[in-house]
Design brief:
By secondary structure, the protein is an alpha+beta fold. It is built from 6 helices and 17 strands. It is extended. It starts with a helix and ends with a helix. It holds the Pfam family Calreticulin. GO terms for molecular function: calcium ion binding; carbohydrate binding; unfolded protein binding. It is found in: Cell surface; Cytoplasmic vesicle, Secretory vesicle, Cortical granule; Endoplasmic reticulum lumen; Sarcoplasmic reticulum lumen.
Length: 377
Amino acid sequence: MKLPVAFLAVFASIVATIDATVYFKEQFQDGDGWKSRWLESKHKSDYGQWKLSAGKFYGDAEADKGVQTSQDARFYAMSARFEPFSNEGKPLVIQFTVKHEQKIDCGGGYVKIFPSTLDQSDMHGDSQYYIMFGPDICGYSTKKVHVILNYKGQNHLIKKDIKCKDDELTHLYTLILNPDQTYEVKINNEKVESGSLEEDWDILPPKKIKDPEAKKPSDWDDRAKIDDPSDTKPEDWDKPETIPDPDAKKPDDWDEDMDGEWEAAMITNPEYKVKSGTIFDNFLIADDVKEAEEFGKETWGVTKEPEKKMKDEQEDMERKLREEEEKSKKKDAEGDEEEEEEEDEEDGEEDNEEQDDETEEDAGTEEDGDVTQKDEL
């Protein structure tokens, strides 16, 4: 039986829609409703607190709201549960946006996919997970995208170095794991890395092993790296977390023979700051690459340019305020200099008047002396 073309088109459309499965999606667009879906871990009492915010600059005040870290120098742990699933024979796509608007010095912006057996209230850094994915930044040396896969209870790190974005804007991170054992990492809907699981992770036993009979030459240098003799420390190099108390003084009765060498107590370095402000949003776990790409365009793709424009305008305003402040300070300084010069001139005139008075007095005294001397003669 020959079916109408229109019917076939509708049927094909329905099949395509059913074939694509979204396992999890979160955009934080129902006010405080997210608090009923996300559970903060109680494993540690000092985990940082989350808040709903679009940040200091954004493309859309409502659409760009996500969960934001709100306390400096803290670890954060929060999870949302979804139904267990199998994507056998289909891709697995993990996608989300993250914004480090605070000019982050050191911190991770990654997510983890856990087993359904996870005790969410006791989740912590050593809890077993299946996949860990996202940017990690710490100082100048670490600015990379983590892709860690768990296989038979062991975590395996990707062997490639994937550079992450380190500015203050929102960025879209996507991991695609294909059923043919290949993968792709995208940032802002553009591919930045791809390959095979077998080649880029040490998941399977190696095809070749080291020759057990081989011996290291006597002059072999074991150092994989050496310090660059021409390298210099940047002026804004990360400061240590603690420093000796600059106000501490050695007690007068300190006896080094009895008490040992005196050292100042360590205090928190005021220049060491692990700053909060990271915003997570637009989570998607699905089995369709096209679905994830379209979702990225509808969310991050729509607000990225307005967000950058707002940020640029804020920076321009801040720059103008700084310039005005510098001009004001300069003007005040010049005014102070003029006042000092006027005071110096007045002081000089007074000194000259006093000197003139002293000269006249001295002259009168000399004349009186002469008269007296003449009288004696």
